[in-house]
Amino acid sequence: MNSAGENNLPLQVFFWLLVVLVLSLALSQIRHRRKIARQIEAGIACARDIVNATPEGVVTSDRAGKISRFNQAAESIFGYEADNIVGKDVMLLLAEESHEVYRQIISKAGSDRSGSSFELMACKCDGTRFPVALTVHHIRENGKDAVLGMFRDISARRLAEVNSRRSRQFMEFLLQSSSVVFYTCNMKHGTTISYVSPNVETLLGYKPETIIGTAAFWRRYVHPEECQHVQANWMPGQNGRLEEFEYRLKTADGSYRWIADGRIVVNDENGEPNLLIGCWADIQKRKEMQLDLELQQERLRISSKCAKLAIWDWTIKTGTITWSGHIQENSGLKEKGEMSFDEFIAMAHPEDEDSLQSAFKNSLVQDEPLDIECRAVWPDKSIHWIHMTGELVNDESGCPVRMVGALDDITVQKKLRVASPAGVQVA
Prior knowledge:
Layout: H1 2-53, E1 57-62, E2 67-70, H2 72-78, H3 82-85, H4 99-107, E3 116-123, E4 129-141, E5 144-153, H5 155-177, E6 181-186, E7 193-196, H6 200-204, H7 208-211, H8 217-221, H9 224-232, E8 243-250, E9 256-267, E10 273-282, H10 284-307, E11 310-315, E12 320-325, H11 327-331, E13 338-340, H12 341-346, H13 353-366, E14 370-377, E15 383-394, E16 400-409, H14 411-419
Antiparallel strand pairs: 1-2, 1-5, 3-4, 4-5, 6-7, 6-10, 8-9, 9-10, 11-12, 11-16, 12-13, 14-15, 15-16
């Protein structure tokens, strides 16, 4: 009996060792599965955190359109809470005109449509419509086909595009309707014009494409009398500093037109001249008016010299009056110089000041020549009769900027008129 028990002892030991080994393996498997489960849970949590952290709204739905997942960004974009929207139709997120487009998107179950992006009109929970960019991915969820949509609100981009388009249209309108012609030169390519606005054809008669890319433009088109000056001053100075000068450019019909050229240079990141931006303004009329004025002043100077008149020049903006010609003989002033308009009016006799001021005012308002006779008190307190005439000088817009005229002492003529018998006319 004991002998049989002793013989079974090794077998029993082996059995229990086998039991222990099986239990150890089972426990190890359990621990391994728990570890895997924890890793899966951690991965799912991490994936959930990633999905919630993404700025795009992630919405998962089945093939019937029932929403199964709705991340935090989607809550922010659409205004729904996940608990209130999960299980409902994804069409609630889209404007009515986008429903059919979305149906066509999800009907393409093939992988060729996975990752495709579309722009649709979406709808917030309060009914506000807004544009979105939708990227679609076809996935498997719980063993079934599903659609993962990533929504991005593009309202700001659309607004920027609209503003950019409006700004571009506005700039095109300005360039086409403005009388100022804009141009640019790439400083790395010398004086070659790289851009010129379309209205150059109105100013000079050339189509833009005939000017763009033209080598040595200024040497070929500037009037010979100004060419050397322009070439000597072509390169602008400091970065961002506006420089201006005037010269004549040859037009398409062979004539020359005065223009004012204003330009600045923009440096690159290394401080080297990179881009020249300039503009041409038509000053032909101003130059013609300036020339006419110079001729008139020359004629007036010659006439005043012959007639022994005092010449006065009133700058309206500053109120300054300058004198030339025979000043002392006609005003009692001893030398050429300047005086204010008030000092000029104060030369009149107190009883004639109002009428002199009214004459100037009427001339300005009515745009008529000045012509008045009044008494003046000379520096030596003597009273003289004077005859004043004047002509307005207007700027390009027609506004008066100066008045130039003559003053003549007519005291002797006045006395002769008073002393002459009735019927006798004194010159």
